[in-house]
Design goal:
extended, 74 residues
């Protein structure tokens, strides 16, 4: 959690990163979302929230995809 919030805070200082983030915010939320609001949302996540999400989205059907000019050797 500390790593996520500290990286997000440092990213706010970089003009290019912030401009890209504002573009993503506009596409996903229809408005720029302040860094503090995003950090509050991350800090509000609980272990129970994660368990509930994983229960609703089981990882039992994983896939592997490869790209390239040749098939992979097994």
């Amino acid at each position: 959690m500390t790593g996520i919030t500290s990286r997000k805070s440092r990213q706010a200082d970089l003009t290019q990163a912030r401009a890209s983030e504002i573009g993503n915010d506009l596409m996903h939320f229809g408005r720029p979302v302040p860094i503090a609001e995003k950090l509050d949302a991350v800090r509000a996540v609980t272990i129970e929230d994660i368990r509930r999400y994983l229960g609703a989205h089981p990882r039992d059907a994983l896939s592997v995809l490869t790209l390239g000019p040749q098939a992979l050797a097994s």
